[in-house]
Amino acid sequence: MFNKLYEKIRLLRIRDKEPYFSLYKLLGFYPDSIEIYQLALLHKSSSVEREKGKRVNNERLEFLGDAILDAVAADTVYHEFKNKREGFLTNTRAKLVQRETLNRVALELGLDKMVVFNPRGSSHKSHIYGNALEALIGAIYIDKGYDQARSFIQNVLFKKHINIHNLARKEVNFKSALIEWGQKNKITIDFDLLESFTDKNNNPIFQTQVMVAGVQAGVGIGFSKKESQQEAAKMAVRRLRSDKEFQHSILEKRDDNPSAQTVNGNFEELPEEENVNESDKPKNNQ
Questions:
Q1: Known catalytic residue at 108
Q2: 231 lies in which domain range?
Q3: Is 62 a catalytic residue?
Q4: Is the pLDDT score of 79 beyond 90?
Q5: Is the entire prediction scored with pTM above 0.85?
């Protein structure tokens, strides 16, 4: 109560109040340092020059926010699913923080109207808002501390925009699913970066292959190593589920030789692609 009163009194002394009001509607509290939030909403395509010619943008805050989001997601999943094993918890955490989820939530929060970027300097516009959401979390941590950042993630992002139990039932992280399947069936899974380069807009491009039992099973391209690995894993899973000849060629390289019945069941455990593409509708978790 006294903190809110102090914030309102402090706000009376500020001439330009609109940024504070906009952030209050988004965050549920008034920021102490407005500059850190403005930086969080500044994409690298619109970097500004500071002292000594140093150009700044929201990438460092994005790095920080990503780590905090991972920690809070892990804590939330751990307490929400008390009887689930480590593999389930790992996959569910990955689903909470995946790029598609963050992009959707960022749009629902209205970050597309707040992020500053140059359209000609960023060809993968769809990722900008999810990245900015992570940067915003980093800004909250710098400005208000971990408890406030955690409160924002749990009470705004998770409770109002993500149905955790619905999301947990969907297998969205192909890389994690593929690695877990490989470990269970004693089949090696390796991801190798084939090449990296920049496109005409100076955006980084990565190409990754995934090797299943030493055989190339998929190749993926993305704007980050993680995204290219996910695309490669998606291709590999699709092939492992549908290509019978490829299945047999992989199994011949295993240390053991399971029965055909066990083999079929194991391949069916891999996620189906349509489960990933189905969008989640935001619901309030009570």
A1: no
A2: 174-270
A3: no
A4: yes
A5: no
